[in-house]
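Now read these lines:
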Amino acid sequence: MMKNLLRIISLILAFTFCLSVPVVAATNDIVDQSELWVANERTFTAAVQYADPFNDTALDIILTNSDDGTVLTVPGFWDGGDTWRVRFALTGEGLWTWQTVCSNAADTGLNNQTGAILAVPYTGDLDVYKHGFVTATAGTRYFSYNDKTPFFYLGDTHWGMASEELDSAGPHAGDINTNSHFKYIVDKRANQDFTVYQSEPIGATYNLSNGLSEDDIPGFDYLDRQFAIIAEAGLVHANACFFYPHEMTGAAFADKSYLEKITRFWVARYSAYPVLWTLGQETDNDF
């Protein structure tokens, strides 16, 4: 009788365990964890060799919240060689499953990759992650965080951000004791209770007037580090487009499809951070 009782208990425990295993376990996906609004990154390796990756294919990640059904479709971006990345921030608590979609369905390295992330509340002290990214609401004359808390905009512009020293004090730091002039400036603004860090791409080391190629990737990698530092300080980055307006007189920028691809790349690379986008500027008769 004792053997039968133990067998029954074992069956009950096994059945209970089966019920408790998340559905995603059936696909052997690892469930990661992320705090709300904090940038996530996933890296993928293309299984197909593309002559021109920027133009020849496109990658998206589709994230679905299993609790409330929210679906986010976020573009990915080429990051040199056969490397592709997707960056995203989760907007609600719960289990999010994700799946990649590549325009070339035959690319098994980019297409139909899957996973899951458990989104949990933010535990830090930075307002932009406690309240959610800044947005505009119809009928109001001010910016708000995602939870409708009013956002006070206070910022100034780092015109030459793209050429600011990241790994040294640089020639303009004077007697400031710092290993990164850029980080010193960002932290100074945060400590002064600025809420916005405005920037221009003057001095950027990439060249988009002849397309986007392998030669441009190091310049964007440099910007990546800067965007991350600004986000880690809790500042909203009001960033201007990848090129200063007068560059748009170049022949390449007359191609609308090229501008759309650059815009997609811009969003894919940096929309996972708290940002405001400058879509048009200096649009007077000088440019």
